[in-house]
Amino acid sequence: MKSARMALAVPAVVLAAALSFPGCGSRGGGSRGGLAAHDSSFVSVTYPHDRSSMELSVARGRIVYGRYCAVCHGENGEGDGFNAYNVKSTYGVTPTAFVDSVAFASVPADTVLAAIRDGGPAVGKSRAMPPWGRTLTPGDVIDAGEYVRSLAHPTRKN
Fold first, then answer.
1. How far apart are CA 79 and CA 115, in angstroms?
2. pLDDT given for residue 25 in this prediction
3. Is residue 3 one of the residues assigned to a domain?
4. What is the pLDDT of residues 8-56, one digit of tens each?
């Protein structure tokens, strides 16, 4: 009888431990109307007190970008991420290269935010770009947008 209780207790402890790590557990947003749960991995980032709010937004955006965007757009925003081949073969388009300052620097900030939040079709682009507005918080969308825009502006600090 005691070994049967142990057999049930061990998986419960392992499940509880796994759910306590960021990124584990439900991805559906739970009971908050489909919004993403708070991700504690972003909270642990600290910044010097003398940085401007734009620099902080870009720094936070780099984290969001690395987690959600780099897989297609590439680590450096060159449109060459791990999944770029699949996007090209499935949709016939390549992910946008944000470092192309001629093509991307003139894109308005609200268009960048709409593309991140609502997906490519919302701004006349490919459906290969998914909407992230139900996954990311509004602040994460803004920060990711600032980071993406900073890639096309070599003079802006990352």
1. 15
2. 41
3. no
4. 444 444 444 444 444 444 444 444 444 455 555 555 555 555 668 889 9
CA-closest candidate to residue 87, choices 129, 124, 123: 129
Which residue range forms the structural domain that includes residue 143?
53-158
Q: Express each pLDDT in 73-86 by its tens digit.
A: 999 999 999 999 99
Q: Which of 78, 39, 74, 80 is nearest to 60 (CA)?
A: 39
Using one digit for the tens of pLDDT, what is the confidence trace for 92-126? 999 999 998 888 878 899 999 999 999 999 999 99
The tokens describing 8, both together, are 């049930």
Only one residue has tokens 């790590």, namely: 21
**Residue 99: inside a domain:** yes
| Residue at 147 is within a domain | yes
Q: Which of 146, 131, 127 is nearest to 34 (CA)?
A: 131
Please choose, from the candidates 75, 153, 70, the residue with its C-alpha nearest in 3D space to the C-alpha of residue 109. Answer: 153
Handedness of CA 109, 141, 117, 126 (dihedral sign): positive
Q: Which CATH number covers residue 58?
A: 1.10.760.10
CA distance 129 to 90: 12
